[in-house]
Amino acid sequence: MYKLTRPEIEEYLKKDDVVLFPVGSTEQHGKHMAIDNDAFTALEIARRVAEKTGVLVAPVMPFGYSVHHMNFAGSITLKFSTLVEVYKQVCESLIHHGFKKIVILNGHGGNTNAVNEALREIRDDTGVVVYNVMVFPTENGFGSGSLKVIKQESGGHACELETSIGLALGQRVLMDKAEKWRSPRGLTDLQKKYQRKVTTARNFDEVTEIGSLGDPTIASEEKGEEMVEAVVKELSEFVEDLKKE
Amino acid sequence: MYKLTRPEIEEYLKKDDVVLFPVGSTEQHGKHMAIDNDAFTALEIARRVAEKTGVLVAPVMPFGYSVHHMNFAGSITLKFSTLVEVYKQVCESLIHHGFKKIVILNGHGGNTNAVNEALREIRDDTGVVVYNVMVFPTENGFGSGSLKVIKQESGGHACELETSIGLALGQRVLMDKAEKWRSPRGLTDLQKKYQRKVTTARNFDEVTEIGSLGDPTIASEEKGEEMVEAVVKELSEFVEDLKKE
Amino acid sequence: MYKLTRPEIEEYLKKDDVVLFPVGSTEQHGKHMAIDNDAFTALEIARRVAEKTGVLVAPVMPFGYSVHHMNFAGSITLKFSTLVEVYKQVCESLIHHGFKKIVILNGHGGNTNAVNEALREIRDDTGVVVYNVMVFPTENGFGSGSLKVIKQESGGHACELETSIGLALGQRVLMDKAEKWRSPRGLTDLQKKYQRKVTTARNFDEVTEIGSLGDPTIASEEKGEEMVEAVVKELSEFVEDLKKE
Amino acid sequence: MYKLTRPEIEEYLKKDDVVLFPVGSTEQHGKHMAIDNDAFTALEIARRVAEKTGVLVAPVMPFGYSVHHMNFAGSITLKFSTLVEVYKQVCESLIHHGFKKIVILNGHGGNTNAVNEALREIRDDTGVVVYNVMVFPTENGFGSGSLKVIKQESGGHACELETSIGLALGQRVLMDKAEKWRSPRGLTDLQKKYQRKVTTARNFDEVTEIGSLGDPTIASEEKGEEMVEAVVKELSEFVEDLKKE
Amino acid sequence: MYKLTRPEIEEYLKKDDVVLFPVGSTEQHGKHMAIDNDAFTALEIARRVAEKTGVLVAPVMPFGYSVHHMNFAGSITLKFSTLVEVYKQVCESLIHHGFKKIVILNGHGGNTNAVNEALREIRDDTGVVVYNVMVFPTENGFGSGSLKVIKQESGGHACELETSIGLALGQRVLMDKAEKWRSPRGLTDLQKKYQRKVTTARNFDEVTEIGSLGDPTIASEEKGEEMVEAVVKELSEFVEDLKKE
Amino acid sequence: MYKLTRPEIEEYLKKDDVVLFPVGSTEQHGKHMAIDNDAFTALEIARRVAEKTGVLVAPVMPFGYSVHHMNFAGSITLKFSTLVEVYKQVCESLIHHGFKKIVILNGHGGNTNAVNEALREIRDDTGVVVYNVMVFPTENGFGSGSLKVIKQESGGHACELETSIGLALGQRVLMDKAEKWRSPRGLTDLQKKYQRKVTTARNFDEVTEIGSLGDPTIASEEKGEEMVEAVVKELSEFVEDLKKE
């Protein structure tokens, strides 16, 4: 919607009320990916879904909850409560104009709790149920079938999966700088023993020495294209179903 | 610690600095369990761990984040931001007196995000890393081995697992009122199709007609005892490791 | 109500709408009383009133406004604004389910201003008038007649009155540790001269060297029983009158 | 201080660091007193004390916590939290410039809790202990000896005491409109029976039909002068003691 | 209105609904003017307009947004958000009693953003449009014609304009201390080159060495009277127009 | 900076510490301009300045303070306080990593007060002075000389100036939809008479019927290029001076 004029938006609202709101983050993505990757991915997926379905796309929110990345240069973080307010106020502005079906396309796992809190407050304040989906394929989410292309053991940040998708979407990726995950030196025995069982406010440099997880060195554009296609296809199907509601 | 006098606490702090802080909720637990179950369980597990390890237990926080249960009578909820503040201020009071190793024992999944946000703010404000664990056994958490006793397909609230543990801990359970999960009537096709793939601010009565999930009718005290024993044993081992740090 | 199931609470709400909400604190109580005493007392009095009148009791809020006790180990304090929010949100949750007559039973003088602020905001937000009473006998409040058993000149914290009531209610009291109030050493002349006439943000260690006021050494279970009986009787009469409204 | 120039204040701060901060309210004062009475009184007493002692006076804060008066026209109220912030920020501005001994002269009982909360937060933030006194004589406060001139049974708002002091200070008082307190019609039996024992968020029109308490018809300038003289004398003594600290 | 009784205000509200709310600040005004000047001016202009038009005047808010003056002794500042709340709550109290046409008379440029934010929130909350005017003559505002008496090149604080008006209104002005503006020593080249083109959070001592701008030495009571007369006349005309709306 | 990797940013910070932070808005721009215009312009100018000077550019903040545009479809607004927090937290994240010279490039006049409030709080919290400039040429700002190309009498929103710059920067502009400003019908006499002299919380549809001001029909790419060149040149000079500081 951000490249339309007001009269064009008024026209759209006469016949439809779906809008996609991509949200990302600006944070370090290891040694090989641009720091805008989560915002970039959310916006690119939104554009592809919009192209297929004809719905509008709100501007991407480029800053997210990245407090655990602040020990790595280039990361920008908002406070949790501020981020909830931003999501809420953008959605409530859209609702004010008549958009009744908002789909938040989230490109950063760290935003999830803030998005969910916003969803709850929006429903309690306005009665409108807002939808939240991840733009990366996940086990239980959209595009799950395409996860078979992924070979790394585990990942989650600037990894085989994220890097492949970046390559497919035209992100700036320096493949020659990509490195496989390395555990940080100097973890205590307690940290090692209970890292999975006990939750703490862990900083990302306590989890990875190089800023990324998994194995980005085996990423490829082809893998990325398969995943992007799957996510876009299934998300578009959801949007079509939503339009009919 | 709540049954000690001030001089007794001063004495403890001279030689040790671990404290358990149980947090729960007051919310409907289907047709057969008392509404204080999450607070009750957190406190009972804390007591058993304290008995084994000699560490102190702070009073249980009985109210949690239960906004999704408010369509069922008896549920009490705090706002997310208020709950974060409560967790923070209790922990920071404990830190003020010299407790350096605080373990939050959480009895309610709905509190998790608020606990995590508190953990982050405490670390940023004071430098102290607080630990957070669930008092129910989970796949990746403490007591995972004992999950083999559970036969229901899925659960999560006043289910076979939670009811069994309630029976083992002496909770008030009305087994003759227990019923197997039933889907709410009147879900839309969209809701049914995307319930797992898309996140919304779902109310609990949109997920279960009777207020519980899973199958509490096959719960038993024996199953509960096995799980309680496993959780208490592994948690106590963690606490012992923590004391040595 | 916290030991009831949801259907039992629904049943209660069909015929009655009174609920007691005990609120206390966790703070040092001199050398001889457990730090949970204010929460313990509020809950115990609430239970006795509930037994006599058949009304429900919400879980006790164990943390209060104890900022002036923070120089003594074991005290836990919430901020004023957080505490107001907790009281408000618990009451508004109860109102949401149909409880129209809420009686806050307060066991800690330091909470009074926060309770009163909550009462005002609840009335302005919802129109519901919430009631607030002290669980200790006071000159103008419930159980005033029983104050004749008290012999100390003045008191107010872990004193003859509070200790006697603790003994009567089964609290953990170490009578051999009880000591008569001693003024802190090192007060300035200005502090001594104007202590009563001028209000400041006084810390409790500027008022008492041992953490208690008055004379707990002359406390007895008999005195406590007489006071408890008087307070419970008069409070129960108030609750009965409230039911009839 | 508000009629001084910056260099004059700098000069003062070189040799002294006491400042009086009068706080009042704007609220209905029955049928016969101007609505600015609490602010007016606080300022007038402050001026008289300043004259005797040579200390400075900050501008009077004219708005207070008067939420219970809002059913009577002309009352202006701030929220509790806003008022605490105002008191805090004014005091912290004064502390910033080098005033180390601030005395809040309060002319409105309804402000007391907000003043006290501000005092606590200022002490915790800056270490400075701020002093709070009432400008009206009270049993345990300054000018208590002069209370013997008061003949009404009870009072508290636009009553014999406050009206007499208004007359003595030159306030606009319409003595021919003054009326003795009358209970509001339509109180329920419950309200009448428990008005003193149970606290609620009572509105002032539930306590007095005419907006004032006590008996202003027996007020006189002479009584007022005696009380003003006593309060000013004792307050000035306190200020002199403070200067010497 | 602050010298009226409640019945007198009720009487006024039966036939009219305009009220003036003067807002000022307490901050250093160079070497020659009292620090209460902005509050004093707002109130004095309000009184003169009220006299001409018969409308009521609320008490003046004496504290404003003066954070940039805090390096000069005697300045008191509120935080932006607190000040917005004060303006809002005072106006909403007035609206509550039936005042529908509120005119804020602002005596301090630094308050403008906070006033405007309050105006917006009041309109969004209550639908009432509140009016905001400066009490000093400005190019596009009231009394612009009278600006011809001003000879200084530029000004803005304790300058020829403000000092002349102070003299005309009876403010305490020490003309023998007045000095022409002097640039602070020690400005960097960057500061000098871009002072007008680039906005920063500039402190007032980075703009003027003596705390005032412009040239107060050429101020005179006659100039002040001409400006006051113009502003009062035009403001009164506006108020008369408002009454007829 | 948003297209760089973390190691590239670390490299930059070793030798330089300037960063540009463009901030815009998403709001209706009359009948002929895309609603993202303020964000788009801020980012495009930032890119051109960065290209000339070699400094980094943070992601553009696409949402601003547009509350007065909410009666026109497509506008999205944040609350004032939320926006201040976003600006603050982004800047403080940048400062955290070692950027000491932040220049906010603002593309929306409505953001100015929020930016200024953020600047003040950042300076008070961290000591860092952040710079704020408009990306459109203004009388006293950068590019003022180029304003001679503008012929409309007055403007300010989607006008000759803004439209010309849009054309020069490659924005989506529908010149055939552009219309000259028209006053809204139905303004009251009071509104017309005092529109300039009195400030209110005016909605934009009370100022323009078509959503734009001034005369966009006489806009041209050539005019835009002249202004863009002037602004970019002078801003770049400022940035070069800043680097040398």
Description:
- Chain A has 245 residues and is α/β, with parallel strands linked by helices.
- Chain A contains seven helices and four strands, in the order H-E-H-E-H-E-H-E-H-H-H.
- Chain A has helices at residues 6-15, 37-53, 80-97, 112-126, 160-169, 189-194, 221-244; strands at 18-23, 56-57, 101-106, 131-134.
- The first copy, chain A, has a four-stranded parallel sheet with strand order 2-1-3-4, sandwiched between helices.
- Chains in contact: A-B, A-F, B-C, C-D, D-E, E-F.
- At the A-F interface, helix 1 and helix 3 of A face helix 1 and helix 3 of F.
Main interface pair?
A-F, 50 and 50 residues
* Tally of DSSP helical segments of chain A: 7
Rounded to the nearest angstrom, the distance between the terminal CA atoms of chain A is 21 Å
- As a percent range, the share of helical residues of chain A equals 40-55%
The overall strand count of chain A is: 4
Strand percentage of chain A, roughly?
5-15%
Order of helices and strands of chain A: HEHEHEHEHHH
Radius of gyration of chain A: 19 Å
Q: Tell me, what's the shape of chain A?
A: globular
The quaternary state of the protein chains shown equals: homohexamer
Mean pLDDT of chain A: 95
Q: What does the main sheet of chain A amount to?
A: 4 strands, parallel
